[in-house]
Structures are given as C-alpha cells and as structure tokens.
Amino acid sequence: MSNVKIQVSGGQRLIENYVQAIQGAGGEPLAGYCPQPDLACGGLLLCGGGDIECSLYGQEDRGSQPPDRDRDKAEIALFNAFYQAGKPILGICRGMQMINILLGGTMVQDMPADQCIFHASSQGDTIHPVRCLEDSILGRSYGPLFHVNSHHHQAVDQLGKGLVATAWSEGGVPEALELPGYPLLGVQFHPERMCFGHRRQDTVDGADIFSWLIKTCQST
Among all residues, which ones are annotated catalytic? Predict the structure, then answer.
C-alpha cells in the first residue's frame, strides 16, 4: 500500500465511490465535506456534484441549479492551497469545472438539448465516445478515441488561464483539461464509476486516472 495521502473533497453523498477508487489505486484518502486544506496530503481530488455559484465566473443565473455555497467556499480554499504548494490536483466533473472557474474560465450553465442528451439521462450515466490528443495524460492511457460515461448538464466554455483542452465529446464539449508545466488533470466524465468494483465493459477502465494521481504525487 502506498503512503500517499489524498485529500478528497466531495458532497454529502456518493463520496464513497471516490474513496474506493483512491484506495484501489493504492492511495490513502482523507475525505470530507467542506474540509480545511491539509497539506500533509500529497494531492487533492475535487469530486463531482452540483452546480457552482455562477457569480464566481461573472454571470447571472442562466439555468444553473441552486449552488452549495459552503462547498464552493471550501473548495476555493482547497484549490488555492494545493495549487500554491505545487501539489497534484485531479478534478472530476464539478471538480474540473471548479478548476476552470478558479483559473478565470467560464461555464455553459445549461447545455442545449441537442448536446445535453448525450451527457445526462434520468436513467443514470450515458455512454459516449471521446476523442483525445495522443500526447496527453488520457491519450497515453487510452489512445485517440475511447468511450466514457457522463452525467452533467453544464460544460466548460472559455478556458481558464493556461489551461488546455485535451479531449472532447460530441459537438466539441471539453472532456479533459490539463495545465502544461503543472501536475493537474480535469475530466468531465466519472472514472470513479468506471473502475474497480464499478468497472464496466462499455467504457475504458477509469482506474488509470486515479493511478496517475497517485504516481504523480510520488514523483512530485
């Protein structure tokens, strides 16, 4: 078992999926709702969840669901602390969106119906293809074209400072972000529901993403 501790910030439900994924990849998760930054941890995981307060990216409500302002505030502090310390950061779904916002990016608050239908369903996750830059974190694991799950109605719009989109789904919706020169990865899909006890045959294995976080913490 790795000695790498990962601070995990999530909502008040479903956080156990992320905990199990970190454990499966060999890390030690320190998980909580609205935790204080703990820089004894080697890296940070910002989990999925509800919509982020739209005023944080300079917009009025254009179809957002009610935000969890306590969580927003806590994750701003978490991101800033780990980012300033140069520690690896992984953002999943809402977590990727938070990274983009805190680096100055914006959001599509409610995707058009012809796009959202590929990414959200009342029956649960949808499955769709993603195209990817081969010389990227995801490309080195999965190649230029692969299938993932999704469950979201918002999407990254303008990219935050320094961020590069490295994967896209139908219609150009960003599915992965990287920050060249910094150990950071954001993914719009849900790898915690594609790995270990939640492994599924119609997507790639999400375990590689959590392994990337653990290995990057060990080498940083």
Answer: 93, 190, 192
